[in-house]
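Support request, priority: normal
Reporter: lab tech (M.K.)
Component: structure prediction queue

Hi team, I submitted a job for Phosphonate ABC transporter ATP-binding protein from Paenibacillus pini JCM 16418 yesterday, and the status page still shows it as pending. I've pasted the exact input below so you can check whether something in the sequence is tripping the parser. The sequence length should be 255 residues. Please let me know if I need to resubmit or if it's stuck on your end.
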Amino acid sequence: MIEFDNVSKIYPNGSIGLRNINLTIQKGELVVIVGLSGAGKSTLLRSINRMNDITSGDIRINGNSVTQASGSELRLIRRDIGMIFQSFNLIKRATVIQNVLSGRVGYHSTLRTMLGWFPKEDIDLSLTALQRVNIREKAYTRADQLSGGQQQRVSIARALAQEAQVILADEPVASLDPLTTRQVMEDLKRINRELNITTVINLHFIDLAREYATRIIGLRAGEVVFDGTPEEATDEAFAEIYGRAVKHDELLGVL
Ligand SMILES: Nc1ncnc2c1ncn2[C@@H]1O[C@H](COP(=O)(O)OP(=O)(O)OP(=O)(O)O)[C@@H](O)[C@H]1O
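Reply from support: The job had stalled in the queue. We restarted it manually and it finished. Here are the results:
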């Protein structure tokens, strides 16, 4: 469970990232965050693993405060959170399996991981993770030889090898074509269902949000202006979130 308790974030230059957010995300939900550029989606997502510090309020994961966690507590909290980025964040010159194994670094000493000494169980876990996203056969290929969609699957496998309880995905499909976009969204949805991993995804395509989310949260100027099911997220609701009618380029389109 992820709880936001009166969370606000004001950047040093005075920009408002988040305003008084109160939210509870239950285990196993697939939450999609939507909103215009600058609405606060990335700020919200990145505050969950404290990539961004908040200005006031508290964020708790399973009752443990992320906001107040010290160095070693924060490392343990972060070990349970997998992060997926628009740009994949892979080590391009390393193989796929080396990238997936990097999800295990939080479980071992720095020296051991620097030398690449991972136990056999970690290798098995990584291969199983690759199997789950259907690219097991690419394990020994260099990451930069894969397509964008395959690279994003490697980053999902890395989060699985990490045995993350929570996956945070910041615009995970923004660099992908429509077909690959759906494949990656299907992977995220399947993993969410099969492994009951709480998943929070920032997206700007509203039809994808409706199709894959179990819950949609709309942000506008740092505030929650919508919180409901995909069925409740009508065109009118989106117009309210965006402060204007939905535009054509905010739909991925039907394939
Ligand atoms: N590092 C920063 N320094 C100052 N202001 C920032 C910083 N990062 C974000 N902001 C401001 O905080 C607000 C929310 O930004 P955020 O990036 O969270 O929005 P977003 O909804 O993720 O937008 P996008 O879809 O463009 O990524 C914006 O007004 C933005 O200008």
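The first strand starts at residue 2 and ends at 10. The pocket of adenosine-5'-triphosphate is lined by residues 11, 13, 15, 17, 35, 37-43 (CB under 6 Å). Let us know if anything else looks off. Ticket resolved.
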